[in-house]
Amino acid sequence: MRGAKPSYPFRAMVVALAALLMPLPLSAQPGVVPEASEPEAGISMPPPPDAESVPLPAGRGEIITITSGGRRREFILRMPGHAGPGPWPLVIALHGAWQPARVFQSYLDLDDIADQEGFVVAYPKGLNLLWNDGRGSVAGIMPILQSRDDGAFILGVKNLLVAQGIADPGRSYLMGFSNGGFLTAYIACRYADSFAAFATMMMTAPKVYAETCRPSRPVPILLMNGTYDPIVPMFGRPTPGAELMSAHESAELFARLDGCNPPSLTRTAGASITRWDSCAGGTRVAFYEIEGGHQPPARSVGPMDTLASLVLGPRRSGMDAPQEIWNFFRQYGDWPPPAGETAPGGEAAATDASSSGAAPHGPSAHATTPPPGGIPLPPPSPLRRPGAP
Q: Rounded to the nearest 5°, which phi and psi values hold at 189?
């Protein structure tokens, strides 16, 4: 049983409340999706291989410094414990506004799952703890004073880890919370080929995405929202730079983009889950409506979560957000069969996982690449040895 982890620092809670009351600046351009700046146009190339690293306390990973768009940027790299040789699956996790990456690392509690399942986690750091997330403003809060393409930075993190033989591009995934969730949706719309699947927590899509979000392939995505969220309300609201859809409309947008059939609805303790399981190329869209606030559900909650609930709304216990997301992720990507076994058909494996009501456990049970004509996936790492997971 994992214990309760620290939540937002008190400063972040106060600023989040102030953001709710901040009026729209006259200079905001609603719904503008920023284009990549000229120095970052070559996002398909890995950043310079001479990245710097600084170790963190035992078990927390190391801080990696790279150059993106002419700026020095940082991310925390956390390798799985007791894992075999790489390259490994990769999950990039994006923090919320004014939430330090190291706080998010403890708050999310994804590292325990990474150790159990054997994947690498990267926690990039936003400039001044904020992301330029595709809304024409920084974090939907203030005008862009420091121009940067944070989408290109996230791809740079992945490309570096792939180039170093750490991450497998065919099993790379992106998730984000709040401000990081908005950036995740932006990348899903613009760079769908770069990750096998996506997940957002406490994010609703800008309304302009109904016209501008045109992913290059069907997007497997899980969306999670809180019914009592005061920061990113489920019903949508105006923010600097964009008018937001409701949470339901956001999920329905991706279901339409993926060509999904009508959804099914299931209810669990504290949550309603809408699933579109029959989408183009074997993709799925999942929408979790959590009876909670602007906090992802956790296996257990503690005093800091209760304190944070005064501003952010309650944190639901009993459902573990990162575990639910990983269960979704591992249905997608280029998972090789165990040594000596033949991979089952990807479509059949996906169907079996769906009909059982639970995701398979362990890499050997994951769905594999769908048959020809299905969803195209990022290529597997050329450094992976035959038969390696």
A: -70, -35
Separation of alpha carbons 278 and 260, rounded Å? 5
Contact status, residue 210 vs residue 253, Cβ threshold 8 Å: yes
Contact 286, 254 (CB under 8 A): no
Contacts of 144 (CB under 8 A, 6+ apart): 34, 132, 136, 137, 138
Radius of gyration of the chain (CA): 19
* CA gap 15, 130 in Å, rounded: 12
For residue 159, the 8-state DSSP code is H
Tracing tokens 């979000």 back to the chain, one arrives at: 213
Distance, in Å, from the CA atom of 385 to the CA atom of 183, rounded to the nearest integer, reads 33
| Model confidence pLDDT, tens digit, residues 228-239 | 998 899 998 877
Q: Cis check for the bond before 378: say yes or no (omega within 30 of 0).
A: no
Least confident of 165-174, 268-277, 304-313, 353-362: 353-362
Q: How deeply is 246 buried, as exposed, middle or buried, from its count of CB atoms within 10 A (0-12, 13-18, 19+)?
A: middle
> Does CATH place domain 76-365 in 3.40.50.1820?
yes
Tokens at 267, concatenated: 């209810």
Domain borders along the chain are 76-365
Q: Residue 363, by phi and psi: left (phi above 0), alpha (psi -120 to 50) or beta?
A: alpha
Backbone angles phi, psi at 234, to 5 degrees: -65, -25
Q: What residue has token string 């990474």?
A: 114
The reported pLDDT for the residue numbered 335 is 84
User: What span, in angstroms and rounded, lies between the C-alpha atoms of 57 and 235?
Assistant: 41
Rounded Cα gap, residues 6 and 287, in angstroms:
26
pLDDT score for 324: 96
